């Protein structure tokens, strides 16, 4: 390789959880890092805003002090469980099991606040320079390095990280992940205030209406009496059924009797906001020569729940290890960086695969109704479902026919 001078060693596109985690984990290696984000913080990110126990655990794994700072972060509320509403409108409340850290197994925080909390933890990191309102327009790769053109400047580096979400330009220019409607969800979010009827322990709510399956309608409580309301569906189903998501959202709130009462004195705080969710329902190439893809850009969103923040943080952590190795060896080849793909799927694929199978089960609303009814009438079944929320091995039982045979005959 000829002697080339670079502006930075590493460019990270996207300053959300995945990009943050990658940069935070690289605070000690002697690497000069640029982070580019097209927004200005604090900035909104269209999302459900729920933060699972895994999000908290990832922060603690990165740094005990970071996890403790998040526990003291004011712009969030504790969430101690989940309410499932079956297609027959029967509800089931399940409390999370005791968490490993802090006072709650889950939290809810607007991404406007949560992402700002994260970026503040790296804005003074000596080896990091953050460029805001910096939209990446083009990326080119040569044998010697990477060149990035933004709306303001051109930058060069030896390596680039795509942490820039569902519509990643790093993937579009360098990667090979295509939008496939059967592996992609369309979502819509709208903030409200004045929604009533939440569980006393601030459960998140997933409503599985027959007309949305295998998707769902959600209501998540937020700080200051607000709520995150929305729905998500497989893009293939949206196309097949010719569904207008904005109209569907409004119609559900107005037509479902148990929702009408809860929303009758509510106020919409914004117009419905649409977004895309590339779900992790198939393995994809998430690296190549001189680049890695992280988080949503790597399509690591849980197919069943739509949750992606925990996997975004985890992918950032994993990426940092392979970035350090690449610079130590000065080996940025696709063959070498493929080890990152292997580790990501070693850590995540089992749960992603099971979640995909659970998503497919949602095509059978009578089965969902049966499980919810059984859990409401049998405390042992309810306890088992509680354990399944966090235990991948137990969750695997949900996709086996034998599990439902046992429920049917009282096993």
From TrEMBL:
<dbReference type="GO" id="GO:0016628">
    <property type="term" value="F:oxidoreductase activity, acting on the CH-CH group of donors, NAD or NADP as acceptor"/>
</dbReference>
<dbReference type="InterPro" id="IPR002938">
    <property type="entry name" value="FAD-bd"/>
</dbReference>
<dbReference type="Pfam" id="PF01494">
    <property type="entry name" value="FAD_binding_3"/>
</dbReference>
<dbReference type="InterPro" id="IPR036188">
    <property type="entry name" value="FAD/NAD-bd_sf"/>
</dbReference>
<dbReference type="InterPro" id="IPR050407">
    <property type="entry name" value="Geranylgeranyl_reductase"/>
</dbReference>
<feature type="domain" description="FAD-binding">
    <location>
        <begin position="9"/>
        <end position="310"/>
    </location>
</feature>
<dbReference type="InterPro" id="IPR011777">
    <property type="entry name" value="Geranylgeranyl_Rdtase_fam"/>
</dbReference>
<protein>
    <submittedName>
        <fullName>Geranylgeranyl reductase</fullName>
    </submittedName>
</protein>
<dbReference type="GO" id="GO:0071949">
    <property type="term" value="F:FAD binding"/>
</dbReference>
């Amino acid at each position: 390789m000829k002697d080339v001078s670079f502006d930075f060693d590493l460019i990270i596109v996207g300053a959300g959880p995945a990009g943050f985690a990658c940069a935070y984990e690289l605070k000690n290696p002697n690497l000069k890092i640029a982070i580019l984000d097209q927004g200005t913080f604090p900035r909104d990110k269209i999302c459900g805003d729920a933060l699972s126990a895994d999000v908290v655990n990832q922060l603690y794994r990165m740094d005990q002090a970071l996890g403790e700072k998040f526990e003291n972060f004011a712009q969030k509320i504790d969430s101690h469980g989940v309410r499932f509403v079956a297609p027959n409108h029967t509800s089931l409340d399940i409390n999370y099991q005791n968490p490993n850290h802090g006072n709650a197994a889950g939290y809810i925080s607007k991404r406007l606040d949560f992402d700002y909390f994260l970026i503040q933890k790296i804005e003074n990191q000596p080896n990091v320079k953050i460029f805001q309102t910096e939209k990446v327009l083009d990326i080119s790769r040569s044998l010697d390095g990477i060149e990035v053109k933004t709306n303001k400047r051109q930058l060069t580096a030896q390596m680039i990280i795509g942490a820039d979400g569902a519509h990643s330009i790093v993937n579009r220019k360098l990667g090979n992940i295509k939008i496939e409607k059967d592996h992609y969800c369309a979502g819509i979010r709208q903030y409200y205030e004045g929604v009533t009827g939440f569980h006393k322990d601030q459960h998140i709510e997933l409503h599985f209406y027959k007309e949305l399956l295998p998707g769902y309608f959600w209501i998540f409580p937020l700080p200051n009496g607000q709520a995150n309301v929305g729905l998500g569906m497989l893009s293939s189903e949206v196309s097949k059924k010719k569904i207008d998501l904005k109209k569907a959202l409004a119609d559900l709130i107005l037509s479902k009797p148990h929702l009408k009462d809860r929303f009758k004195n509510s106020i919409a705080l914004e117009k419905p906001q649409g977004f895309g969710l590339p779900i992790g329902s198939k393995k994809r190439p998430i690296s190549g020569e001189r680049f890695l893809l992280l988080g949503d850009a790597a399509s690591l969103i849980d197919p069943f729940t739509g949750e992606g923040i925990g996997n975004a943080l985890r992918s950032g952590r994993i990426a940092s290890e392979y970035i350090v190795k690449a610079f130590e060896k000065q080996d940025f080849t696709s063959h070498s960086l493929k080890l990152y793909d292997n580790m990501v799927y070693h850590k995540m694929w089992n749960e992603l695969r099971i979640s995909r199978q659970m998503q497919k089960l949602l095509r059978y609303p009578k089965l969902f109704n049966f499980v919810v009814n059984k859990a409401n009438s049998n405390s042992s079944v309810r306890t088992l479902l509680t354990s399944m929320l966090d235990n991948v091995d137990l969750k695997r039982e949900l996709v086996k026919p034998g599990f439902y045979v046992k429920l049917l005959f009282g096993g």
